[in-house]
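Running this now, will post back.
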Amino acid sequence: MLPDFPLLKRDLGRAITRWQERRTRMYQGEIGKIQRAQVFEGDRNVIVRTDGSLEETSYISSSAKLIIPASEAEQIDLPELLMKLDPIAEDMARQQSRGLYEAIVEGVEKVGNSVDAQGQRLSPELFLRCLERVIIPFDREGSPLMPKLHVHPALGAEAEKAWKELHETPELSARFQEIINKKRDEWNAGEASRVLVG
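Update: finished.
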């Protein structure tokens, strides 16, 4: 009988799982940088909104499969295994990202915070309309912590051009600053009215 190495197999399995998770986050880009928390049990989640309201959500399922025949499994080495797992990580990233974007769209529409571009191209005006709809937090020095913009890769150059135009056109830049000042006042008012428990 051949010897078994259960601790080595366990450690190798954990290392491969960690590699797979890191690879998936890498394929997710900015979404992969979102802080995560492991949930050990349950079948739903609760979101506590800034106004104190609660919303129950269900988990989004994602799965992928890799089948390696037993005859091939005896010969495969770690680099080959990781090459086979890489497309799985990419597929999981795509599924999880799509699920997150769908949940965001649903949530934004539910609270009436969506902006319909009505087929228009991305423009500085559209950015300003979006900024008017979101909460912008500020740091202790009063600088805005701007939200991240997520656009389809095909729109990346158009989004950059519109953002640049927004800051280089005096009238648009002034409107942007007005929005930021208004958001700063709203943020400060909200912070001042918070009741600290302690």
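Residues 19-31+43-110 form one domain. More later if anyone needs it.
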